[in-house]
Amino acid sequence: MQAPSRAIVSNQPGPHEDLAQRVARSLAHPLRKPVAEHTREAFTVARRWYESRGDMPLILDAGCGVGLSTRRLAARFADHAVLGVDRSAARLSREHGPLPGNALLVRADLVDFWRLALAAGWQPLRHYLLYPNPYPKAAHLKMRWHGHPVFPVILALGGRLELRSNWRLYLEEFALALELAAGVTAAVEPHVPGDAARAPEAYLTPFEQKYHASGQALWRLVVELPHDAGLVPTDPTRPTGEDV
User: Which pTM was predicted?
Assistant: First the structure.
């Protein structure tokens, strides 16, 4: 029997007091982290695959873990190209059955992959961030996606962005960061998986299944965003087109 999942414990009573400062910094200063070569290679593979799909709309499953969510999204959206990205080769190698023909899994650093996708002009129709590592300690705000310098890139890609978490505060912070960065309001709402008792595929990820089975409340945030590369600061010391 699978052990119940422990609830998230944090030393934060509410949204982080430095959130506005972190968001303002990410909007004002370009991210100068060099792109890892393995991610450039992975993006080349992903781009060729995506271009071979013809006019299929793109779904990004960011931080897809073992790839179960990518498989299930591909089954739900059979007329879409579903791309799962995760940094762990071990997670991606887990056996969860064959990939549907409209899905691909790639190992890449998400921070780099997102920047390459934006530079290539990608405009995903749907973009999922399912149960990201919450980094619940207050000292780890900069490791949460809304506190990370790549945050403007996530928003700039546009599309229907959906986050799910078992830590409501993570989504509340993300909603505040959204409003600060793009003037967009998004609601945080309870998420109850479909008829999971009869259809396990109603759970998109193993974490979702585990948290729900443990009796934890699940939350989601869904927002429609325009494609807006202008949100991302550029580096004036580099020639145009060389910011990634």
Answer: 0.93
